[in-house]
């Protein structure tokens, strides 16, 4: 099974050992580091569930069993928050890889959710743009 990150709804950036994910449709944003950043990197690259498990097991030097349960819970949470959905990504990497870095031991991936930016994201006029672009001044009615 693969997961899809809709680029029209979700924006993200990995910064070394941390990933920031913004759901522009809901205004929620998420931060995850360590194992969470690695999980997101593999999901965003289009890796399948089994590929994610195998890559993480190799990177963290642990067995598949512990990772599998933690990954299922993490993916369910990301789906509940409409950050990912089941489906084929538009482009999938031939082999999903993690950045080279020192890793601690495996721990369940955790994404912290923040909702304090909702008002600012919704106030952004880019959300109200039509095909005419922004800024677009409506013509004045003829009297």
Q: Could you characterize the architecture of this molecule?
A:
This protein has 143 residues and is an alpha+beta fold. It has one domain. Helix content is 31%, strand content 17%. It is built from 4 helices and 6 strands; from the N terminus they run ββββαααββα. It has helices spanning 35-44, 49-60, 64-80, 118-123; strands spanning 3-4, 10-15, 18-23, 29-33, 85-86, 111-114. The strands form 2 sheets. The chain has a 4-stranded antiparallel beta sheet with strand order 2-3-4-6, with helices on one face. The chain has a two-stranded antiparallel ribbon with strand order 1-5. A hairpin with a 2-residue loop joins strand 2 (10-15) and strand 3. Helix 2 (49-60) crosses helix 3 (64-80). The longest helix has 17 residues, at 64-80. It is elongated. 23% of the residues are buried. The model has no long low-confidence stretch (mean pLDDT 85).
